[in-house]
Structure formats: C-alpha cells, structure tokens
Amino acid sequence: MPANVLFAAKPERWDQYRDVLPRAFEKAGLDVDLRLDFAPEEVDYIIYAPNSELQDFTPYTRLKAVMNIWAGVEAITHNETLKAPLTRMVDFGLRQGMVEWVTGHTLRHHLGMDAHIVNPEKRWEPTPPPLARDRRVTVLGIGELGLACAEALAQLGFDVAGWSRRQKSHEDITCYSGADGLKDALKRSDIVILLLPLTPETENTLDAEALALMPRGSFVINPGRGPLIDDGALLAALDAGHIAHATLDVFRREPLPGDHPYWTHPSVTVTPHIASETRAETCAEVLAENIRRGEAGAPFLHVVDRAAGY
Amino acid sequence: MPANVLFAAKPERWDQYRDVLPRAFEKAGLDVDLRLDFAPEEVDYIIYAPNSELQDFTPYTRLKAVMNIWAGVEAITHNETLKAPLTRMVDFGLRQGMVEWVTGHTLRHHLGMDAHIVNPEKRWEPTPPPLARDRRVTVLGIGELGLACAEALAQLGFDVAGWSRRQKSHEDITCYSGADGLKDALKRSDIVILLLPLTPETENTLDAEALALMPRGSFVINPGRGPLIDDGALLAALDAGHIAHATLDVFRREPLPGDHPYWTHPSVTVTPHIASETRAETCAEVLAENIRRGEAGAPFLHVVDRAAGY
Q1: Judgement on whether residues B19 and B55 belong to the same structural domain of the protein
Q2: Complex ipTM
Q3: What letters, b where the CB count within 10 A reaches 16 and e where it falls short, cover A21-55?
Q4: Residues B80 and B112 in one domain
Q5: Contact B303, B86 (CB under 8 A)
Q6: Which member of B108, B273, B293, B306 is catalytic?
Q7: Is B109 a catalytic residue?
C-alpha cells in the first residue's frame, strides 16, 4: 500500500516540485501517492510550507510527520493543532547557497568593493585592504547554516568567532555563549552575521544596546530573520556612522514595502530574500529520505524541538 | 662580516620597510648592513622594485642576488646588465590578498550583487542564483597565485578549470594546456580570471577571437597584468553584450587615465591595482630567508627563469 503524501504549499511551489519529487521517491525505492488533496484522515505525510492555506491539522488523524520545506519554522512551531513530528529543511542547496551569499557579502565589505562598483569621480586610491586574518567576523547562531558559514570564512583566513545559546567548541572558531558571551562577541566584531533562529528570546538581538557594543565602523549582515534586528535602532546607528553598512536579506515584512527607509538609506543594501532558497532537487532527496525512514520506523532527520522553537 | 644589502625602490617603500626589514633579519639570525646607498662594488644583495632609478647593474660586480619585491618581473627580466640571479616575490600576503580579491569578485558576479548594491527602482525579484557547482570558472595561469585562487574557488564549490602553458594535473581542478587547450578552456567559462605572467606570448591573450569563444553573458576578471587583454576587443565584446561585465585591476597605463572608456563603461568595474599588494611584514620574512640561503650557499627561493620570462 502506498504512503499518501499531501503537498501543502503555494501553487507556484507545486510547479517546482511536481516532477522532481516523484523522481526522488522512485530513486529511493518508495511507493508513494503524491497529491494536492486527500481526505485528511488518509494522509500519512505532509510536505509543508508555513504560508500554505492548511493551518488546522486536527482532521489529519493518522499523520506520521509534517515535513517543512523551509529552514525557518517559527510560523508553525506554535500551532497546537499539530501533534505529529515536525521536521525542518536542511538540504545541501540551502546550506551551500547560504555559504555563498554570506561569504560573498563578507568579502564585499572586507574589500570595500562598493567604492569601486560606484565611482563616478574616478578615484584611484590604491590602498589595499587588511588581510582577512586581521578582520574579526562573528556569526551569531552557529547551528547547521551558521556553522557552515563560519567554517567557510575561517577557511578563507578570517578571524572568526561564533555565538550560540549553549556553549560549543570548534578548533578554528572562537566560541561564545550566554548573555555575557554575546557582549564579548559583539565587542570584537568588525562584521556581524545574523543566523539565529527566530524565537521570543532572539527577537531584537541587535537592539540599540547591542549595536553600541560593536566597534565604530563595523558591518551588519542579516541573512537570518528580519525581527532579529530592531530596525529603528539599526537606522539610528547607521545615521550616526557607528555602523558603516548593513546588508539585509530578510525583513519583518516581505517584500520590503516601497516606503521603508532601508530602500533609500545610502548605507543599507537590500537583497530580496535570496541568501538561501530551498532548491527543489536537493530538497526532494531529503524529503524522500525522511519518508523512507518513517516507513521503516527509523527516526526522522532534522526533527524540530518545538519547546526550543527550532 | 655583514652582508651588504642595498634597498632600491621608491622612497615611499622605504618608509614601509625601514623598520620591518631589520626585525626580520634579526629574527633570522642574520648579520646585515642595510642601506639606501653603497659603493656598487660592495653590494651583496639588492632588494629591488623595477620602478627604482637603478637600471644599470654593470657596476655591481659582487652581487649575489637581486630580490624583486613585486610578483611581476617583466620590467626587469630583459635587463641585460643584470647577471646575478633574480628572485621574485612570493609571499603569504601577496597570495592571500589575491585569493581574497579574486574570490570576492567571483562571488560578486556569481551572486549578481551589483543589481542589489545599486537598485534605485527598488526591484524585489527573489530569484536565487545557481549554486557555485553550476558555475564554470576558469583561471588562466595556474602558477603560485593562480593555483591558490583556483583552489579557494574549488573549495567554495565552484566548477573550476585552469590553463597553463605546460600541462599540469590537480585533483579538484580540470587542467588545460597549449593553444587548443586554451580554446577549450575559454569555451567552458562563465567566468574567466587572468593570472598569467606577462610575456610576448601572453600579451593580448584575450583578443577578439578568444573573447568570441567565451559563452554569451560571461564575465572577465583581470588581476594579472593589463596587456593580457586587447582593450579595444574587450570594449567591443562588452558593447555587444557578449561579455556581461569586466572587473579590471590592472591596466596598460596606471593610474588608468581619466579619459579611458573603462572608467565610464556601465559594464566595467575598475579597481586601482589593489588585488594583491606586497605587504612589508610578510615580504620581509621571505627576503630574510633568501639572504640566509645565499650566505649558506643554499639555492634561492623563487628564482626567475629569465628565458621563460617568469
């Protein structure tokens, strides 16, 4: 008997996944019936995006798992109608895309590229930047994505630190944790990269007080979640020249509204939530593997700890 | 008896080296007399930059080596008054600076950053770029600097090839060589990085014919030497949209003259010869090591093959 798999995400996602998923299931040797609708009581697995219309899981009585195709789960983790295990997406494309975007924008600020990309006055000022080993980069949040970014930056020669709620250790990365550790991490940062999960505790991590701890002339890069930053405090720190530049990929409202000051601030770069996108092909392999595990009674990969919120 | 070391470069270089060199010599346990002038027949070693006033080496009769502090040696290699061994600079700072600049600008073009850095129309178009594994990067010239760049790009996940005059092999880099190999290398390149030495054979490597072999919409990055490119042919290929963008750090005349079309072309980024700069501290360690070798009768590091021109 096939496993019944419901695809519950925006219709444009279905266009990306309709061919890719059956191929991944076949490759994994799975017998799957994949559809956009079922009688709820017949569904075994839901492939899910939190902006789907499906928000009430009560009628899905035999559900084995809800498999989120996003890395972020804050929009579903508190849904009390969901009793089945929730998994989040950790795939090669998601991690690799994040590493590329973060490394690229870190190097951009490190090298001072913007002054060359836009240079109408034809300034020729051959002052080379410091070497990466003299640039202190701190990644706030060294989970799956943050750790991959921190390792890539250390590999390129940057002086890298990471901060996490619980103390970690790593041979190439200076690890900080806890509230005092956050202060120390901010004080040593020429470039801060935000890759924390969004929880009540992490909201407004970069507020006025935190920004004031960063050295004058430092940089903020946010590919994590918009509400990690107190936007008003960041704008004030940019206006004061305390923060030299912010490159932001995520926002409290997306698309970023046309009248938001980030769009026109000379020290802000907006990118349209592209730092890391689930790619259907690499994602489908992970979904197939989790269905295989569910059918075999093995533990799922990347199960969300809903009490912790990630 | 101390070794007599003449410093022959522009006065502004002396400001960078005057304190750093004695420290490096002391650290290496060397007995050195370092000066800006000596009677020529008393000089053992010359620390040299090709734009120095010293161009006639005939009176330096007991010279053991001329140690260039630049990586490029084309301005001295054909000087027939020089009979002593010539070494070129290969130092950590030079290599590392080049890796950072090349990796940064490769990621910039790969990620399409410019469209976000300058975006007055507030376009929000969340189409993520392909992953690095789907971007074919080719480094022309895989000597000391080119190989380090190719390895860093392969480490980040790019699909990397290298071209050199003589066939090489490398486990992570597809190696091409010879005239036919150059054509194959250009045909497969989304991004071409020029790191060839400048010799009569490499001048105008990127001419109209070579540019035509590159796929439409590809990118040129030149941190090597200005004359590697036929400027007129590149401008024509940019105007035709065949080449999407060129990022150039080196030019036939530097500073790049204010009326040069590269300054105002919308598809060209000029950087002021900063991709890789000899850093006094890391450089001094290499100079001290070569003097130590010369005094011990051991072979010098990084000796130039003057027939080959590098």
Answers
A1: yes
A2: 0.82
A3: beebbeebebebebeeebebeebbbbbbbbebeee
A4: no
A5: yes
A6: B273
A7: no
CA-CA distance, A256 to A189, in Å (whole number)?
27
B111, B119, B250: best to mutate for the A interface, most A CBs within 10 A:
B111
CB atoms within 10 A of CB A108: 24
- Residue B273 annotated in active site: yes
Residue A260: closest CA among chain B residues belongs to which residue? B122
User: Is the CB of residue A190 less than 8 Å from the CB of residue A161?
Assistant: no
For residues B113 and B259, membership in a common domain is answered with yes
CB B177 within 8 A of CB B196: no
Count the neighbouring beta carbons within 10 Å of the beta carbon of residue A218. Answer: 22
HSE toward the beta carbon, residue B45, CA cutoff 13 A: 23
The type of residue at A27 is K
Q: How is residue B273 written in tokens?
A: 């010869």
Instruction: With respect to residue A308, please indicate whether it lies within any of the assigned structural domains.
Output: no
Instruction: Round to whole Å and give the CA distance between A113 and A117.
Output: 6
| Model confidence, pTM | 0.83
CB A280 within 8 A of CB A290: no
Which two tokens mark B65? 């080596």
Among residues A170, A273, A292, A306, the one annotated as catalytic is A273
CA B110, B116, B117 angle in degrees (round to 5)? 100
CB A29 within 8 A of CB A289: no
A123, A156, A255 member nearest B103 (Cβ): A156
Tens-digit pLDDT profile for chain A (310 aa)? 899 999 999 998 999 999 999 999 999 999 999 999 999 999 999 999 999 999 999 999 999 999 999 888 999 999 999 999 999 998 888 899 999 999 999 999 999 999 999 999 999 999 889 999 999 999 999 998 999 999 999 999 999 999 999 999 999 999 999 999 999 999 999 999 999 999 999 999 999 999 999 999 999 999 999 999 999 999 999 999 999 999 999 999 999 999 999 999 999 999 999 998 778 888 999 999 999 999 999 999 999 998 888 8
Put simply, the answer to whether A100 touches B157 (Cβ < 8 Å) is: yes
CA contacts within 13 A on the Cβ side of A231: 15
Q: B100 and B87 in one domain?
A: no
**Cα–Cα distance measured from residue A294 to residue A307, given in angstroms and rounded to the nearest whole number:** 22
Find out whether B271 and B249 touch, Cβ atoms under 8 Å: yes
Sequence-ordered strand ranges (E) for chain B: 3-8, 32-35, 45-48, 65-68, 86-87, 136-140, 159-164, 174-177, 191-194, 218-222, 243-248, 268-270
**B66 with B167, same domain?**
no
Please report which residue ranges of chain A form alpha helices under DSSP H. 11-17, 20-27, 92-111, 114-117, 144-155, 178-187, 208-213, 231-239, 280-296
